[in-house]
Design brief:
The protein has helices at residues 9-29, 36-47, 53-60, 64-76, 98-118, 124-137, and strands at residues 80-81, 95-96. By secondary structure, the protein is mostly helical. The protein has a two-stranded antiparallel ribbon. It holds the Pfam family MarR_2.
Length: 139
């Protein structure tokens, strides 16, 4: 395949995300007993505690049913907690437990190493620019 200069942006981003997901999963998450969806859910909760199941589903682009399965699996392991009931409404805010935050922190080195392997062919300036562009597009 060519350099991808004419490929749609969504396709190129999907290819990069797929390669990174596989590398992160194999080298950093699976050894910690986490799936990629669990990791993403935990990462979001570390930055935005008290997200509901529906909000997390929207954040990650999965169905509420799929996110509920992710949250239940994390709850069963004591990594996330949700109240049994809430005073108003139906949404149960989720938050990381101390054990969840500790496990998430323990994956950081492996996740960063996987990112470095993915970007090994880029210069330091290209890496910095790539991150900057992704951050700008994602806001």
């Amino acid at each position: 395949m060519g350099g991808g200069h004419d490929e749609p942006l969504g396709y190129l981003m999907h290819r990069v995300a797929s390669v990174l997901r596989a590398e992160v999963s194999a080298t950093a998450l699976e050894p910690a007993g986490l799936s990629f969806p669990q990791y993403i859910c935990m990462r979001i909760l570390s930055r935005f505690p008290d997200r509901s199941n529906a909000e997390l589903a929207r954040d990650t682009g999965v169905s509420p049913q799929a996110m509920n399965m992710v949250l239940r699996s994390l709850e069963e392991r004591g990594l996330v907690t949700r109240p049994d009931t809430v005073a108003a409404g139906r949404s149960l805010p989720a938050k990381l437990t101390r054990a969840g935050a500790k496990l998430l922190d323990s994956t950081e080195t492996g996740v960063r190493a996987a990112e470095q392997r993915l970007m090994a062919g880029l210069s330091t300036e290209q890496r910095r620019e790539f991150r900057s562009i992704l951050a700008a597009l994602g806001t």
